[in-house]
Structures are given as structure tokens and as C-alpha cells.
Amino acid sequence: MMGHQLPLSVVILISGRGSNMVSIIADAEKADAPYKVLGVLSNRPQAAGLQHAKVAGIATAVLDHTQYASRAEFDEALAERIECWNPDLVVLAGFMRILSPGFVNRYAGRLINIHPSLLPAFQGLDTHRRALEAGVTEHGATVHFVTEELDAGPVILQAHVPVYQNDTEQLLATRVLEQEHVLYPRAIRHLAASKV
Ligand code: GAR
User: Fold this and answer.
1) Is the CB of 140 under 6 A from ligand 1?
2) Which of 31, 100, 128, 186 is buried most, with the most CB atoms less than 10 Å from its CB?
């Protein structure tokens, strides 16, 4: 994040619940936060996170991907809408869409994601179930730069949690999510301070 003015300006992209978004917005409101949230955009009109953002007084936008003929057209509209805010950083927080190479390259080095595993382990979906099936004793979450290859960009920060003998998918998901809520604001602060 070389060359930006403090505070770093951030737009958050969501698709659903938005609990990571909530923790980022709360952190950005702290007096010492080196970043601010300009807006939240969802590709799903019904995403619960949109209401949370509104309650927090954050501008919201919806871009329903089902209304676009192709991924490329949606991604073009997405970039145009994001540019209305002109953010330094685009933060994917449970944004469950694959982005086209054109979009990813446009935001190279300014586009980050949180993934519920210790990447490179368990790329893709159902990470908690797969971690249990694999019998790992350690699991966690990763904040990384987004590149053309899914869930494979350079790691910014990771959080580790133990996996217990009698764990269920739900217990493990909750344990990881708690750490995600700490990890994502920390990662954004690191970027704001150009520590990465
Ligand atoms: C989070 O656990 C996030 O790591 C995951 O979706 C959840 C969103 O929760 N993201 C991915 O799986 C991306 N491949 P939230 O909407 O409550 O932040």
C-alpha cells in the first residue's frame, strides 16, 4: 500500500451475513484506526450484512449478479460502482463470487480476501468439514491478496486455532470465525501502515 494518504479508504464486498464486515466497521470507528470504510457492496439484495452496514451509518450498494448476462459484464459494472467510492483497498468479506482476471488485475495489490483455512490447505468451499475429515490438529483463517488463481494469492496474515478430538463442523466454524473477526481488522491495519 505504498503511496496512499492516511487514513486508508476501504470498500467492503459481501454476499451474506457480513459478520467480518461488522468487525471491520467497528474497528474503523476506533480513534486510532488508520483506515475508514467508505461503503459496503453486496451482489445479493437479501444479504443480511446490508442491514448491519446501514445501522452503522455506512453507505451501501447492491449489484445483483443475476441481472448480468456474463461474469465479465457483472465485473465491469462492479468495478464502475466501486470507482464511485475511489477506495485505496477493496476488501472481500464473504463475497462468494469468483472474479474475472480483468477485475483482479485492475485491483492488483489492492484487493484482499479472508478464507476460512490455513492456506494453501483447503482452498475452496466446506473448509471446516474437510479439515475434520483430513484429521488435522490445527486449522484457522488466512487474509491474502487476491490473484487470478482462486485462494492462492500472497498471504498477509493467518490465525491458528486448535482442532479437538470431539469437534463438530459447527464448533470448529465458530472457533475460526471468532479469530477471523480479530484477524481481518489487524490485516487491514498492517496494510494501512504499509507493514506488508
Ligand atoms: C467467512 O468465514 C469467510 O472466511 C468465508 O465466508 C464467511 C463469511 O462470513 N469466506 C469464504 O469462504 C471465501 N471463500 P461473514 O459474511 O459473516 O463475514
Assistant:
1) no
2) 128
Strands 59-62 and 35-42, by their bridges, are parallel
Is there a domain that residue 2 lies in?
Answer: no
Ligand 1 site, residue 177, Cβ cutoff 6 A: yes
Domain span holding position 181: 8-192
Q: Check which CATH number belongs to the domain holding 162 and give it.
A: 3.40.50.170
Whether 39 lines ligand 1, by a CB cut-off of 6 Å, is no
Helical packing angle, 169-192 and 19-28, nearest 10°: 30
The pLDDT assigned to 196 comes to 45
86 is in an annotated binding site: no
Is 115 an active-site residue? Answer: yes
pLDDT of residue 6: 81
- In terms of Cα–Cα distance, which of 63, 1, 54 is closest to 25? 54
Kindly state whether residue 3 falls inside one of the protein's structural domains. no
Q: Which of 52, 115, 128, 139 is catalytic?
A: 115
pLDDT score of 38: 98
Domain count, the chain: 1
Give me the percent of the chain exceeding a pLDDT of 70: 96
Residue 1 lies in a domain: no
The protein residue whose alpha carbon is closest to atom 6 in ligand 1 is: 94
**Interval 85-102: pLDDT, tens:** 999 999 999 999 999 999
For the record, the C-alpha cell of 190 comes out as: 498492517
Collapse the DSSP code of 9 into the 3-class scheme (helix H, G, I; strand E, B; otherwise coil) and give the result: strand
Which residue's CA is the nearest one to ligand 1's atom 16? 18
